[in-house]
Amino acid sequence: MSEVEAAPLPDRLARAITLAGPMPVSQFMAAANAHYYATRDPLGAAGDFVTAPEISQMVGELIGLWCADLWGRAGRPDAAWVELGPGRGTLAVDARRAMARAGFAPPIHLVETSPTLRQVQAERIPDATFHDGIDALPTDRPLLVVANEFFDALPIRQLVRRGDGWHERLVACQDTLFLPIAGRPVPDAVIPPSLAGAEIGAIIETSPAAVAVIRGLAARLAAQGGAVLAIDYGYDGPALGETLQAVRGHCFANPFEEPGSVDLSAHVDFTTLAAAAQAAGATAWGPIAQRDLLGGLGIDARTAALAGRHPDRAERIAADRRRLMDDMGTLFRALALTAPGWPAPAAFA
Ligand code: SAH
């Protein structure tokens, strides 16, 4: 490793900005998150945040049943199961167990860029095949793709309204302080007409990276068959507002401070992703609330069965269910995509 590569990420970003000028928010976010995920396991009580599959095994199990049900009604094709950004691999382990009980034992492909998290995932799913991106996924069979809190980690662009129109937002650096500034003007034509008259200071976010992944997956579904289930905190865009946020130790932090040491995420624009998927040849379903997804897949029956088998943990199981259904139930939503000719996905129709 060269001396420059060994320097802490904030120093490297500061040097890059000093040499080449302020960088787009998307570039800053991509560099910060690549470093963040590469250098730690951020999940769990001792980490920075907790996700639904880490709260309860029921999440992975119900998602596994969703996949197995769709696969069965599609005629039991020779399909591959894919997860994007599997974190600790918990969802994959729980989904695999549930799918196997339903007679579905597909090969598992994991799309993960973090070497640290890949190691955790490989220990729990030793036969998984790893990929850096969706382009390397198998091309010869239908794909059943799951992504929980993956799209919100992908870099966003921000546009900021000034007196003279809209500008790309850049990250500048003063001494060791990073701060957002207005950069190059963007043509009025790229601004959705409904947002064009926004007040000075207004922000529009877009995620070309998320759109590219959805478009790529939808094209695969159209060519190979299969389905996608993406769960995230999101909105019906395009819309005004800044959702870029930083989390550390379960508290919010300044997204422009200490890049690489905090988790950066942004809410997902479901409308734009669904439209991109449809344009690439897939059918989009929802988004529906997480509580409707898990409720429709039978979380209440599953809670009762689990509590019946583990009476000592019944209270805990009920509390986990409440957290998924009440606390997170409407904030988080699920978007499904299906290949042309594939049946309607459970809980969405
Ligand atoms: N799905 C897991 C983890 C969510 S955290 C859960 O719900 O618990 C985001 C995950 O996406 C991490 O595994 C992170 O390493 C991965 N990730 C982030 N950006 C990525 C990228 N560009 N390509 C592939 N994986 C990425």
Structure summary:
The strands form 3 sheets. Strands 2, 3, 4, 5, 10, 14, 15 and 16 form an 8-stranded mixed beta sheet that branches. Strands 1, 6, 7, 8 and 9 form a 5-stranded antiparallel beta sheet that branches. The chain is 38% helix and 24% strand. The protein has 349 residues and is α/β, with parallel strands linked by helices.
Structure description:
With 349 residues, the chain is an alpha/beta fold. The chain has helices at 3-6, 9-20, 25-38, 52-55, 57-73, 90-101, 115-124, 208-224, 270-279, 290-296, 299-309, 314-327, and strands at residues 23-24, 80-84, 108-111, 129-131, 143-148, 157-162, 165-174, 177-185, 203-206, 226-235, 245-248, 251-253, 263-265, 268-269, 283-289, 332-338. Helix 5 (57-73) packs across helix 6 and helix 11 (299-309) runs antiparallel to helix 12 (314-327). The longest helix has 17 residues, at 57-73. The radius of gyration is 21 Å and the shape is globular. It binds S-adenosyl-L-homocysteine (SAH).
